[in-house]
Amino acid sequence: MESIDLLVLSTAHDWLQAGQRVLLATVARTWGSSPRPVGSMMALRGDGRVVGSVSGGCIEDDLIHRYTSAYGGNALPDGPPQVVRYGISADEAHRFGLPCGGTLELILEFTPSRPPLERLLAQLNAGHLVRRSLDLGSGQVALATSTAPEQFVFDGQQMVNTLGPGYRLLLIGAGALAEYLATMALFNGFRVAVCDPRPEYIGGWNIPGVEQLVGMPDDVVRAFAPDLRSCIVAVSHDPKLDDLALLEALHSPAFYIGAIGSRRNSQLRRERLIEHFGESQASLQRLHGPIGIYIGSKTPAEIAVSVMAEILAAKNGVALPRTVDISSAKQAREQLDSVAAL
């Protein structure tokens, strides 16, 4: 679940609690190119305030003008949810800023019931995956816990959206690279935590919004309880700390596990984990190292960009080509340099 969706739901709840009328819009179906994926949400308050997004902005503007009194539209109506479609014709696509050929279908819920929204938020904040089902005929919402993320479904009568806790990043090591990586993760919507038992490092940590976890890395990883929306990155440069964290992380469902290090150090780490800790080539398949994609990065900030790009690719289910793998790219470059030197 993206952090913006959690913000939409919590803001809609707060507006409802304050006695405001609220429109909750969800992207139900798309054809062609679309600015936002299915399941994306926005909330519109009766006075025109908006949180979240279902397009590049033009559709939001149309909803504001159509449904809010502040802009001359009708007050938000009562009644069951409605389905609206944008971009059917080329003229409409151009008018609403949709890509050429793009069509977007939205489900509009008018002043959704607050108790189901409260229960949903409580379960999400407790770290649960929740399947939210909406019946368009009655407007009734049903909630059920889920064991794994599921695809968004809309069959014309019922919408099923599986929502879960936001993505999390646990950093082992509080050096300069960790600070840049934490900053990038935060603005990509991750909740970030850092662990470093070395007081000289954690004592200088100054990135606001990052939780500092106390303890040895293996204990911290266990307490962190990684799930399918968690990633763990070891950047302490201390094998005693990094290896402890990795040993725990590798036996968790975390979607990304990685450790900083050169190609040689990464290979030595794999050999060490196999020889002394009972890991195998198969169990180490999930371990990224050297971490990041190859962009010729040198500084901590550039390396953080490289690592964050690889994390986001894993999060989004994108298989990266070998040409951007650091080990493969550096090996290919060395071969070209050797040929050029002949």
Structure in words:
The protein contains eleven helices and 15 strands. Strand 10, helix 5 (176-187) and strand 11 form a beta-alpha-beta unit. It folds into two domains: 3-163, no CATH class; 168-330, Rossmann fold, CATH 3.40.50. The N and C termini lie far apart (53 Å). The mean pLDDT is 89. Helices cover 37% and strands 23% of the residues. By secondary structure, the protein is α/β, with parallel strands linked by helices.
Q: Helix share of residues?
A: 25-40%
Biggest pleated sheet = 6 strands, parallel
Structural class: alpha/beta
Looking at the overall shape, the CATH architecture of the largest domain is 3-Layer(aba) Sandwich
Low-confidence stretches: none
Task: Name its key features.
XdhC and CoxI family protein 2, Rossmann fold, five-stranded antiparallel β-sheet, six-stranded parallel β-sheet, 2 domains, XdhC_Rossmann_dom, globular, alpha/beta, 342 residues, 15 strands, single chain, XdhC_CoxI, NAD(P)-bd_dom_sf
